């Protein structure tokens, strides 16, 4: 879904073709390689969006000794679906790193609705952490497993605290319009 949100958001700005988008995300930092985005995946998503009626081919640029370039534009249906896809991305995200494309395109959605989604996510994480942290007192650990138990408790508690801190920070920055 992130790739399709990326494509639709780029087409909101201007008509474009797949190869040009691939080039934009590969320079100067090779984000395409870091995200595992191959040219064939990008073309697949363009095709998928076109089949759904969210984008349409508007022009074919022919150049001598070069492959044809099919230029796409976002449709009215695509403009309508983009915010829904961004909200869904936030709702389904397991971590902030899963939200990057949504955060980069937050201008296409209502900030308050994003804040509500994030606050609900934060409440759920805090409730789960409270529940899990209560187990420590209920579980008896034998001497042989004591070091393992300490390690796991340290790992899980640090991860939970880290997640809560950064989600609270994200909510604050979205509310303030910094992101």
TrEMBL record:
InterPro entries: Tscrpt_reg_PadR_N, WH-like_DNA-bd_sf, WH_DNA-bd_sf. This is Transcriptional regulator. Gene3D superfamilies: Winged helix-like DNA-binding domain superfamily/Winged helix DNA-binding domain. It comes from the Bacteria.
